[in-house]
Amino acid sequence: MAMTGPRLFSTGAIVRGAVSHSHLIKPMAPAIGGVRDFGKMTFEKKKTEENQSEKGSSGGGKADQGNKGEELIVSYWGVKPMKITKEDGTEWKWSCFRPSETYKADLSIDLKKHHVPSTLPDKLAYWTVKSLRWPTDLFFKRRYGCRAMMLETVAAVPGMVGGMLVHCKSLRRFEQSGGWIKALLEEAENERMHLMTFMEVAKPNWYERALVIAVQGVFFNAYFLGYVISPKFAHRMVGYLEEEAIHSYTEFLKELDNGNIENVPAPAIAIDYWRLHANATLRDVVMVVRADEAHHRDVNHYASDIHYQGRELKEAPAPIGYH
């Protein structure tokens, strides 16, 4: 009979930051016949610093109040959480990215570069993007914080779709991808980090969340189909989308400089991800995000040019780490 066990992580457990290996579950030995007894798993409790200080101040007189403030880590399979530290030895508090994935954005990149559409597919891609700008402007108007947050939920889709399809192609043909799988997935992850940052600045309403579900569902399938039919068209369209993103973030900066949007302190996640100075502000965040979009513009126009020249992406080394 098939045995079902507990979830890999306990239902109420929230792991904050890095955790020592000593707090892992110590599983019992398998029962007779090779059947694991999941009901006899043991675990240790990890007190938070808050509870430890509280216990010290009270001299140990307070009783345990329903395991309040404790973090439980449950793992039968021996997957060990890693303790990650910064270069200065302090604890790394983010689980969504590692110190090795952080970087300083190249702000010197040319923001005015534009691919002039000449062929029919290029013109179709260009005007498709232009037609999408009108309803976006109408809906968000000058609420650039919400606009940035919402559009990043869509901007992270092309890299994921493209990377997935190039990955599948590599498997089908038993061939290398030239690094393009990693490059495209890297783009998708970078766009997702933009979203994680702006989530700290603007909170979506219920109807905006509903809009994300609808738009993402339509866009994912449409882009998937477009990439299958014509990768050169798909990459060109993303290149034009990134050009529009540069324009939007430039307008965002103007609103910040004019005082129409409060230049609040930069979220902590942005300071660590882009290696910003400790006193960085929202303006600094918009600057580095705009630079990221300019790099994505270049990569996608470059990918489209490769296809236009009758070549495949694998024939040109991918710009991995191009920030």
**Mean pLDDT across every amino acid position:** 81
Strand-pairing-aware structural class: mainly alpha
Largest sheet: 2 strands, antiparallel
CATH architecture of the domain at 120-315: Up-down Bundle
Q: Using the coordinates shown, work out and report the CATH topology of the domain at 120-315.
A: Ferritin
For the record, what CATH class of the domain at 120-315 applies? Answer: Mainly Alpha
Radius of gyration: 24 Å
How many beta-strand elements?
Answer: 2
Give the H and E element order.
EHEHHHHHHHH
Helix content range of the residues, please?
40-55%
Structure description:
The protein is mainly α. It has a domain at 120-315: Ferritin, CATH 1.20.1260. Helices cover 50% and strands 2% of the residues. It is built from 9 helices and 2 strands. It has helices at residues 49-57, 120-140, 144-155, 157-173, 180-198, 206-229, 231-257, 268-273, 282-308; strands at residues 45-47, 70-72. The protein has a two-stranded antiparallel sheet. Helix 2 (120-140) runs parallel beside helix 7 (231-257), helix 3 runs antiparallel to helix 5 (180-198) and helix 3 runs antiparallel to helix 7. The chain is globular.
Helices and strands, with pairings:
Blueprint: E1 45-47, H1 49-57, E2 70-72, H2 120-140, H3 144-155, H4 157-173, H5 180-198, H6 206-229, H7 231-257, H8 268-273, H9 282-308
Antiparallel strand pairs: 1-2
Key features?
Ferritin, oxidoreductase, EC 1.10.3.11, mainly alpha, ubiquinol:oxygen oxidoreductase activity, transit peptide, 323 residues, transmembrane, two-stranded antiparallel ribbon, globular, disordered N terminus
